[in-house]
Amino acid sequence: MTGIAQALPGxxxxxxxxxxxxxxxxAAQEDRLVAPRCxxxxxxxxxxxxxxxxxxxxxxDWVQLAGRATVFSFSxxxxxxxxxxxxxxxxxxxxxxxxxxxLVSNIVGVDxxxxxxxMEVTVVFSEITDGWKLPLFEPVPYEDRPVR
Length: 148
What we know:
Layout (H helix, E strand, L loop, with lengths): L21 H8 L4 E5 L21 E5 L3 E7 L2 E4 L2 E12 L7 E6 L12 E8 L5 E7 L9
Antiparallel strand pairs: 1-2, 3-5, 3-7, 4-5, 5-6, 7-8
């Protein structure tokens, strides 16, 4: 066991918004996970950009997501500047209700040795500086996983 994966303390996390990203962060303040979908061709894109990388349209619809994801890739980081005892699990996550979009976040509340590619996770929100919230992910409880 390597310890439980944690988030960085909220006061250590700072974000900068832009017109392209502010709807994402505003939704997170309300404990909602959203993704931008092109109003022209329907392509989802994360991180948010001012125009669609597929068709260059500037039309965008912000779609509410269910908050579920699967782990596409991850790493385990032991220690952080000024926090030598913290264990962080940054991950690239597939969002099933935003096909083609991937979100980079952290997995929390789990032994890092138990994290696996394809693991089902669900969003939780953690308060950070300046009144914002950060979407993090924790494992979906076994009893809440769909039967396959």
